Amino acid sequence: MKYLSFIVLFLSLSLHHSLAQCVIHLNGQAGNYTICEGDLPGILTNPTGLGTFSGPGVIGNIFNPINIPGEFVVTYVANGCNISQIITVQTVGQYPEINPFPPIICANDEPITLTGNVPAAVFTLENGIILPNGVLDPSLYPTGSPLIINYSYNAPNGCVSSDQATITILNIPTIDFSNFPSMVCENADPVELPHSILYTYSGTNINDNIFTPTEPATYTVTVTAGAGSCLTTATANLTVVDAAPLSITNTNGTCANLPDTILYNGTNLGENATYTWQIPTTAQLISIGGDTIVVDYQGSGEQIINLTIDNTEECVENTANFTISTQQISVNTITDQHINIGQTIELTTEVEVSPPDLTPSISWTPSTDLSCDDCLAPEYSPSIIGEHEYIVTASLDGGCIASDTVRVSVIFPNEVFIPNIFTPNDDSENDNFLAFGLYTQTMNMKIFDRWGSLIFETNNIEEGWNGTYQNRRVNTGTYIYLITITDENGTQEVYQGDVTVAY
To answer: Omega before 356 cis (within 30°)?
Structure first.
């Protein structure tokens, strides 16, 4: 009986739970529901979230009968659940519309009365402030930004409908001619006149706020500022005068990495003239002094210098470009050399030019012992021992010059003297076995006994062998040496023979 009671109780609770789940919610609320047409669309939900909704104006879980007032039956079907509920859509009845009014008024205008088609509707501002009787006093509100006005009607059934409009309150503007140009050069670039969104220009050669100077004359420019009823008008004169061309020259400038002086050398413009220079991004400005600059071109090719002159006393073309084509050249010859008299070497040289289609002229100084003095790789056969310096110079027609230097040390072939006997008896005479060479740079000496065992080795050209092995004097006899010598030219020679140790 206990188990039967439990089962009955469980089934009862489960049934109650299922019935509690079998309900339609609209916008989170259950039961027969009333909604205003202005609140549509609504969201249909069910605690199970497993069924489907159907009925007029239902798409998926969205209820939207397209603002048609009336009663609508919505059905929800799920496992163990089939329920229908009525949703009533109410109308507002009256739909307020604001009568037209000026979108822009002045801050000093008289208050205006706003009207609409629904007498019971109320005018409010965006912040909720009510306009009694729809009266708007422009002096009470900030200027410049749109003021949002709501016109709302609350129907007896609780539904709300509204209309919205904006009005902008403006101050009467002041026209400022402080930055207005009084003089413009003939055929200068079009002039942008001072403006704001409230300025409207009119007059000859004027398009919007752009004045295009053509023939010399005095032009009257009319400016109207404001909007709506907030308007003011003023005039100004603008004079177009004859223009004189800018004149720009340079002193030494076809070669990159060579300072070039560029200057304005036209009409004397007086102390009030200001000069604005623009140089290529690849150039370095070394100095600037008003009408003169010094630049260093960092590369080759077309270099464009721009000059703008502002002047209140004289009229010149206010902007001009100066173009120069620069060249670049570099020379690299071989590293310094050491050779023996009687040897011949090639003084190989590389020249790079830009633009690459240019052909440089080559010159060697001096030309002594060279096979040619105008080629890139002359053969050099020295006739005199000593230190010799040769300069190779490459030049372009535009004046670019570059040079490099190679130094050649000419010596006699190394002569090495190796004795065949020495007496290591500590009498300070002939105590060490040494190799002598006039041009010896490095030396490796190895000493072997008659069985071929290495008993001594050194790389010190001044040390030599003192006739000992393991700190003991060797016996009188003959020993074998192997000596490797490198001279100043890097030439390596190996000498092998025997030396006698005598006491």
So the answer is: no
